[in-house]
Amino acid sequence: MFSPCWRIFGIIATSLSALVLADAAANGNKTHLNPTIPGWHSDPSCVFVPEWDDTFFCVTSTFLVTPAIPVHASKDLVNWRLASHALTRETQWPHFNTTGQNEGIFAITLRFHQGTFYAITFFVSDGSNPLPPGLLFKTTDPFDDAAWSDPVLFRPGNIDPDLFWDDDNVPYMTCAESFISTIDLDTGALGPVTQLWNGTGDRNPEGPHVYKKDGWYYLLIAEGGTEVNHTVTMARSRTLTGTYVGFEGNPVLTNKNTGQYFQTVGHADLFKDGTGHWWASALATRSGPEWVNYPMGREMVVTPATWEEGQFPVISPVRGSESAWALPVSKNVRGRGPIYGTPDVFDFAPGTALPTNLLFWRWPNLSSFTISPPGHPNTLRISPSPDISSGVDPISFIARLQTDTLFEYSVDVSFAPTQLDEEAGITVFLTQLQHIDLGIVQVVDKLNHGMLQLRLRTTGGGNFGAAPPAVVHPIPNSWRAAPITLAVRADNDTHYTFSASSNSGLGRIVLGALPATIVSGGTGPFTGTLLGAYATANNGTGTTPAFISSWRYTGIAQKIDNHTFVPSW
Length: 569
Ligand SMILES: *[C@@H]1O[C@H](CO)[C@@H](O)[C@H](O)[C@H]1NC(C)=O
Ligand SMILES: *[C@@H]1O[C@H](CO)[C@@H](O)[C@H](O)[C@H]1NC(C)=O
Ligand SMILES: *[C@@H]1O[C@H](CO)[C@@H](O)[C@H](O)[C@H]1NC(C)=O
Ligand SMILES: *[C@@H]1O[C@H](CO)[C@@H](O)[C@H](O)[C@H]1NC(C)=O
Ligand SMILES: *[C@@H]1O[C@H](CO)[C@@H](O)[C@H](O)[C@H]1NC(C)=O
Ligand SMILES: *[C@@H]1O[C@H](CO)[C@@H](O)[C@H](O)[C@H]1NC(C)=O
Ligand SMILES: *[C@@H]1O[C@H](CO)[C@@H](O)[C@H](O)[C@H]1NC(C)=O
Ligand SMILES: *[C@@H]1O[C@H](CO)[C@@H](O)[C@H](O)[C@H]1NC(C)=O
Description:
mainly beta, single chain, 3 domains, 6-stranded antiparallel sheet, binds 2-acetamido-2-deoxy-beta-D-glucopyranose, 569 residues
């Protein structure tokens, strides 16, 4: 199945063991690979919690995707599992029907204080929702979706709320542009607002976090915008509300104005492990300075830091491979679903639940997704939505993240449409306005007879430009009796190859290869590529469901530098 790739795999495997061996010789350090959590995981915020078995917990932003606000858990910053999602119930926050494609749950701050976890965020919307956009979720059990509260609502003056407790346990909320106020964690009431710092003068001073250390209040922010000029800067003050004085050594972290493969490094958070070593989490984009081809969007990186008493921290620049403090390797972390990086082998057996890494765009219509319906064991039945490319209503689309530079994703599809334009297939999806679909679609021939076609169709063009024309291919009659396997694979970091094959071994049709720049930038500058299955009526009258089976995703390799690929983790 992966034959052309095994050759590449041999080369990359060698380069990884060379890295690891070189590192074993160093003084107890280890090689830390980035992205620490690959695939779209933007705006990370992390805490280390001794009370929960010495576990690191990080949250990442999810925009319009649900379930929202994943809490990732790790004991070694290498092996990660899903602890829970803070936002899983539509009743917690139903307002995902906003019209913009990059709206929704923006950056979250995760904090732990006196036994309770707090996830605080801002819901960006088109203005049709009159409720306060500040959302504060709480739990005393980070491993249980159901234990997360409904949100306490508050009305911050800007995005990116942070939470900080002063020594007297009074909580403060600081948002972008470093406006700080007290916050009542039960009612959301905010006290008088003070501005701490304007940053060094670059645009978008956002993503603030406040820390107290050695008698100083430290403020860390992002500046320059979440693109190639992204930086992390810091200031400090002897009192919480200022005056803050910027660090002469700013920025404390950036890859701006470098040729590094990892770009847009910023939106950082600082946390200390159980051995007293500091780390920074941040977002980064694997794009090189050209910043054109980056289908996975903004990913989560972790890098070591030293923070001496009375000083500003020194944060190691973000690289794909770094020498870092050696935490003992531990796959023994609590959570749901497998360790991240485990291939998807999903057969939708009767009585099983949806796998924990599958996601929806906005809240789904759950009755459109049925595991092993009567007469169709080991399938996921997807009933079509009127369209997947427009509107704010639920769409019949279920996906996972693209988490690897090189990968293969495939599903088997049984689909017997009867109405014109009924379609089901797989998609490489950045937003509703920007996706590449390989579908089985009902069309009519010249004599107006219904016929089934394979169609590779692009909506939107992102950094590529105009959408390339659709490619169609009739489905051989001999293929009709069995499911059809639809597959997409990335054999290099610039293109996806789309193919279909008959499940009964009657051949394979390659529809073509399309550039990954189609799902970079454009209407999805803040999000990243999802890979999934869909069913749509294409605005027609069809209601025929599709039956999806044998869902497979295998990560093959990660690109971590200009010319370096290593096996996926
Ligand atoms: C979203 O739903 C709310 C509540 O039902 C409604 O007031 C609002 O107009 C809707 N927004 C859009 C864009 O449909
Ligand atoms: C930030 O800049 C604005 C506009 O120049 C100014 O009014 C404000 O006082 C500044 N805030 C701080 C904390 O320096
Ligand atoms: C980055 O900064 C440079 C120099 O100020 C500017 O020319 C460029 O437009 C900026 N790029 C982005 C994406 O903001
Ligand atoms: C990596 O590629 C970029 C262009 O994408 C270039 O500017 C940079 O110098 C390269 N770095 C190395 C180490 O070759
Ligand atoms: C070990 O890792 C720390 C943290 O990154 C770094 O400061 C130190 O230089 C590393 N030591 C070596 C020998 O690479
Ligand atoms: C939800 O999906 C079911 C099955 O496809 C459909 O009958 C129903 O009309 C949908 N409900 C909404 C609100 O779209
Ligand atoms: C990447 O893969 C695509 C599809 O197979 C191919 O057309 C393209 O030439 C490849 N690019 C490079 C640099 O090998
Ligand atoms: C369905 O109709 C909407 C509204 O007219 C339109 O924006 C969208 O592009 C249509 N979808 C397709 C697949 O034609």
